[in-house]
Design brief:
Layout (H helix, E strand, L loop, with lengths): L10 E7 L4 H14 L3 E6 L3 E3 L10 E10 L3 H14 L15 E7 L4 E3 L2 E3 L8 H10 L4 E4 L2 E4 H8 L7 E2 L6
Antiparallel strand pairs: 1-4, 1-5, 2-4, 3-4, 3-10, 6-7, 8-9
Bound molecules: 6-(adenosine tetraphosphate-methyl)-7,8-dihydropterin and magnesium ion.
The site of 6-(adenosine tetraphosphate-methyl)-7,8-dihydropterin has 18 residues, from strand 4, strand 5 and strand 7.
Length: about 180
C-alpha cells in the first residue's frame, strides 16, 4: 500500500492501562497521539474503568478509544504505537493478559481487512469487549464494522453490552 492511501481513512485505536496510575497513562497517551506529526486526532472517548478480563487478580483497567487520520501505512502505524508503549515503560511479558502500563491496539482502519501474523484488523477480540465497544460507540454511534463479507452495526452490539453486569463504568472525558 502506498503511503498516502490511509490518508482519508477512519482509524480507531483502543487504549488500555492498569499500572502506574492508569488514568494518567491514558490521558498522556491521548495527548501524545494528538501531538504526533504523522497523526491527526479526530476524536477521543471518555475514560472507562473495568475489572480485568476473567476477573484476574490485577488492578482495574482504564480504557479509552480514539479516532485518528494518518498518512502512514498500517505496519508503520503499528510501529509508532508499539514505540509509544515502550516509551511509556511497558515491559515485554510473555504471559497472556499480564498487567501493562500501556496497550495500544488498532481496532479498525475503515473497512480494510488485514490478516498478517503481526497485524489483524479488525482487531480479533474487539466485539467481545465491552470496554472497547462502549467507548467506540460513544465517538462513533453510527459505525458499521465490516467482517469478512458481513456488515455489523455497532449500535445494537453496544446497547447489548451496556446491559452486561461486568460492563465498564464511564468516568469522565478528559481535556487533552
Ligand atoms: N497485533 C495483531 N493485531 C494487532 C492490532 N490490531 N493492534 C499483534 C495491535 N497489535 C496487534 O500484542 C501482541 C501482538 O499483537 C503484537 O506484537 C502485534 O504485532 P501485545 O500488545 O504486545 O501483547 P498483549 O497485549 O499481551 O496481547 P493483546 O492481544 O494486545 O492483549 P489483549 O488481548 O488486548 O489483552 N481487561 C480490561 N478490563 N481492559 C483491558 O484493556 N486488556 C487486556 C490485554 C487484558 N484484559 C483487559 C484489558
Ligand atoms: Mg496489544
Amino acid at each position: 500500500m502506498g503511503t498516502s492511501e490511509l490518508k482519508n481513512m477512519n482509524i480507531y485505536i483502543a487504549l488500555g492501562s492498569n499500572l502506574k496510575n492508569p488514568e494518567k497513562q491514558i490521558i498522556k497517551a491521548l495527548q501524545d497521539i494528538a501531538k504526533i506529526k504523522d497523526f491527526a486526532m479526530i476524536d477521543y472517548s471518555s475514560l472507562y474503568q473495568s475489572r480485568p478480563l476473567d476477573n484476574m487478580a490485577q488492578p482495574d483497567y482504564i480504557n479509552s478509544v480514539c479516532q485518528i487520520k494518518t498518512n502512514l501505512e498500517p505496519f508503520a502505524l503499528l510501529a509508532v504505537l508499539q514505540q509509544m508503549e515502550q516509551t511509556a515503560g511497558r515491559e515485554q511479558n510473555k504471559k497472556k493478559w499480564s498487567s501493562r502500563i500501556l496497550d495500544l491496539d488498532i481496532l479498525l482502519i475503515d473497512n480494510k481487512q488485514i490478516n498478517d501474523k503481526n497485524l489483524i484488523v479488525p482487531h480479533n477480540q474487539m466485539l467481545q469487549r465491552n470496554f472497547v465497544i462502549i467507548p467506540l460507540y460513544e465517538i462513533a454511534p453510527n459505525l458499521t464494522i465490516k467482517l469478512c463479507k458481513k456488515q455489523l452495526l455497532l449500535k445494537p452490539l453496544a446497547l447489548k453490552l451496556m446491559k452486561s453486569p461486568n460492563r465498564c463504568k464511564r468516568l469522565y472525558r478528559p481535556t487533552i
